[in-house]
Amino acid sequence: MTGASVLYDVPGPRTRLRNNVLTLAFAVVLLLAAYFVWTKFEEKGQWKGELWQPFLRADTWTELILPGLVNTLTAAALAAVLALLFGAVFGIARLSDHRWVRVPAAVVVEAFRAVPVLMLIFFAQYGGSLAGLVVTEFAAVVFGLTVYNGSVLAEIVRAGILAVPRGQAEAGSAIGLRKNQVMRLILLPQAVTAMMPAIVSQLVVLLKDTALGFVVAYADLLNAGARVVPANYANLIPSVIVIAAIYIVINLALGYLATWLERRSRRSRKVAADPAAAEMAGGEVPLVR
After folding, report:
1. Could you tell me if 210 and 144 are in contact, meaning their C-beta atoms sit under 8 angstroms apart?
2. Is the separation of the CB atoms in 193 and 259 below 8 Å?
3. Are 251 and 204 in contact (CB under 8 A)?
4. Cα–Cα distance between 144 and 213 in angstroms, integer?
5. Of 83, 77, 105, which is closest to residue 150 (Cα–Cα)?
6. What are the CA-CA distances from residue 227 to residues 159, 223, 230 (Å)?
7. Between helices 99-114 and 66-93, what is the axis angle to 10°?
8. pLDDT, tens digit, 9 for 90 and up, residues 260-284
9. 105 with 93: CB under 8 angstroms?
10. pLDDT reported for residue 264
């Protein structure tokens, strides 16, 4: 069948016309909204050159924005690594055959997943100080991001592993693999490809949630753009626009990296599977010289 699949049929002339009309209407509405915002900002003088001038100065970037960006990326990178480890450990623990492992893991995941990140950051900083601990703003932000996003990732890991056909685990057990070997060698490699889009989406959320460090005065990108720069140059709206553009660029780069990793993973698995497929089909496997 050309141009169609089981789940999707090629649209006919009327459907194409309707889609084109809706696309045009949406584009017109979007342009009108952009024009409305532009004119309102123009009335308030937000497009004046002196408000944007600070962003043409090197010291604004080297002393304010770039240090904030480095702090944001540092917190996000550390929290991402810890959240992935947290998610992998607790996601697999929720699949354990032992009740004494499965139930506490479920309680931890559900508890942290239900609490807002902001409350976790507050709890880490102020609760730690009440307990006599010195908790820095960086540590509080990383803790909040780790336990919340790690709990969400634990559910993603659990769902990804459960999505692998049961026959894969049974085949591994049939050839004598232990349960941990089945999980490590068979289930996880297949689940990772399926989980990649959801994992990347959650990492984008994690990156954006670093902005919540603003409330505990963490010197991140948002703090630099919405507090420090406007305090020096009285240009809140231009500063927020610039910071938003930086966040967009970072998230697009993260999405592109994830897409590249997913394609590479799929390609590697396909290449690895080709010789076996050829052998099963009765063909000869070419020798690699």
Report:
1. no
2. no
3. yes
4. 10
5. 83
6. 41, 5, 6
7. 150
8. 876 776 676 666 555 444 444 444 4
9. yes
10. 73
pTM score, two decimals?
Answer: 0.76
DSSP 8-state secondary structure symbol assigned to residue 57: S
Architecture of domain 49-281: Orthogonal Bundle (1.10)
Closest by CA position to 246, among listed 122, 29, 46, 70:
70
Cα pseudo-dihedral 100, 105, 111, 116, rounded to 10: 170
Which residue is listed with tokens 């979007």?
30
Token pair recorded at residue 24:
């045009």
H helices of the chain, in order, are 13-43, 49-52, 58-60, 66-93, 99-114, 117-122, 128-130, 137-163, 166-174, 179-181, 188-209, 221-223, 229-233, 236-280
**Which residue in 154, 141, 175, 163 sits closest to 71, CA to CA?**
141
Instruction: Express each pLDDT in 85-117 by its tens digit.
Output: 999 899 888 888 888 988 999 999 999 999 999
Residues in CB range of 265: below 8 A, 6 or more apart = 192, 193, 196
Tokens linked to 254:
């993260």
pLDDT over threshold 50, residue 288: no
By residue count, the chain amounts to: 289
Radius of gyration of the chain from its Cα atoms, rounded to whole angstroms: 25
What count of Cα atoms within 13 Å lies in the side-chain half-sphere of residue 114?
A: 6
The domain segmentation of the chain, as residue ranges, is 1-43, 49-281
**How many CB atoms lie under 10 A from the CB of residue 67?**
16
